[in-house]
């Protein structure tokens, strides 16, 4: 990213998008700006409804935890709160794939609440409803970690499910460590929310080597 931090690169991209939108507006067009990662209330609302779909599909199972890469946190945390049952809300464990300042989490909470408003749901979330962990992104965003690479290989060889070195591989490494250290108790019902990214695995094969 030319020596920029992830936050600086995101800010530059947003500035460029706004400039382009302004130019298009001058030409009579209407541009819709989608931030990096699709972090909009509409995008987050899709994960709120996705969480409801998960609950509907597993209606006979008490889901104790959902583990995922942190980019989808706003919608998933909001969905867990909105569709909590008598046993309480599912705990959403968000594994950071890059370093984030503390104020970033309030932004995600605001995004989640905007999504809930769009869907006309009464629930609201606070920072206390979030559970972020910055211990697993390694040296930084888009830089493979040993734990992430090992997690990618383990899941591929045991289950035939492919994850990637930027997002889902690191998130799954976090899940494995949570189980190994007892942070997720034995017997818990856990869903790993797989958000894709598989194309990066084949584009950067040297990151993980052979998976067999």
Q: Would you mind describing this structure in some detail?
A:
It is a single chain. The chain is an alpha/beta fold and 212 residues long. The chain folds into two domains: 33 residues; 170 residues, Rossmann fold. Helices cover 46% and strands 7% of the residues. The protein has seven helices and four strands; from the N terminus they run H-H-E-H-E-H-E-H-H-E-H. A four-stranded parallel beta sheet has the order 3-2-1-4. The radius of gyration is 18 Å and the shape is globular. It starts with 5 loop residues before the first helix and ends in a 9-residue tail after the last helix. The mean pLDDT is 90. One of its GO terms (biological process) is alpha-amino acid metabolic process.
Number of helices: 7
Percentage of residues in strands = 5-15%
CATH structural architecture of the largest domain: 3-Layer(aba) Sandwich
The coarse overall form would be globular
Kindly provide the radius of gyration, computed on alpha-carbon positions and rounded to a whole number of angstroms.
18 Å
Largest sheet: 4 strands, parallel
Q: Ends: how far apart?
A: 32 Å
Q: Write down the CATH class of the largest domain.
A: Alpha Beta
In the residues, how many domains can be counted?
2
Major sheet: arrangement of strands: 3-2-1-4
Mean pLDDT: 90
Share of helix among residues?
40-55%
Task: Offer a quick outline of the entry.
The protein is α/β, with parallel strands linked by helices and 212 residues long. Helix content is 46%, strand content 7%.
